[in-house]
Amino acid sequence: MANGDVEKSGLRAAANPSFSDKNTSDSDLLERIGRHQDRDAFASLFKKLGPKVKAYIMKLGATPELAEEITQEVFVLVWRKSALFDARKSAAVTWIFTIARNQRIDRLRKERRPTLDADDPLLIPDDIPTPHEEVEQAIIAKRVRDSIEALPFEQREAVRLSFLEGLTHQEIANRLDTPLGTVKSRLRLSFEKLRLSLGEFE
């Protein structure tokens, strides 16, 4: 049932006293709605409890306009969920006011959710490479891998430990059980070979 239908039913109830059966309890009205989708029962319930629900929501901090809107939402849910009401577990008023409270809490959560600024630098993605740039980067990456693989084993291992594992020269020397001067020499020679191999990309 749409919000507009809920509002129309409430207005009909206010205009037509026959819709308001004072001898019928709220629980009975809810059960009639749940079992038979009884619009007259719904209109009576809306007339009896609508103003109370609105006042309750306003006590929870909502403006009159927002309270009216939430009240409409509450009675839409009452219509849809009335079959779930169990008079043995709670009174009709308690059941409906619980729905109202939950709707108000949902609105508060939405209001307090931070909005995102589209111009925030943190939300602006990095430049996306063009297809040409992606191909060029792939070519360079392959050339680097091939150039490293072409190094002698000792130099290749020193480069791997330095750049891939991030070890210091001393840590590399300890790992390889090799003098520090030898490690520095291997890295220097490997850099010279890589520079010659990759010179066209500088």
Short overview:
By secondary structure, the chain is mainly α. It has two domains: 110 residues, Rna Polymerase Sigma Factor, Chain: A (Orthogonal Bundle); 57 residues, Orthogonal Bundle (Arc Repressor Mutant, subunit A), CATH 1.10.10.10. Helix 1 crosses helix 3 and helix 3 crosses helix 4.
Key terms:
single chain, mainly alpha, rod-shaped, Rna Polymerase Sigma Factor, Chain: A
Structure, described:
The protein has 202 residues and is mostly helical. It folds into 2 domains: 110 residues, RNA polymerase sigma factor, region 2, helix turn helix motif (Rna Polymerase Sigma Factor, Chain: A); 57 residues, Winged helix-like DNA-binding domain superfamily/Winged helix DNA-binding domain (Arc Repressor Mutant, subunit A, Orthogonal Bundle). It is built from 9 helices and no strands. α3 crosses α5. The radius of gyration is 37 Å and the shape is rod-shaped.
Question: Which helices and strands appear, and what pairs or packs with what?
Answer:
Layout: H1 3-15, H2 26-36, H3 39-59, H4 64-81, H5 92-112, H6 131-149, H7 153-164, H8 169-176, H9 180-197
Give the helix tally.
9
Q: Give the SSE order as H and E letters.
A: HHHHHHHHH
CA gyration radius, whole angstroms: 37 Å
How confident is the prediction overall: mean pLDDT? 80
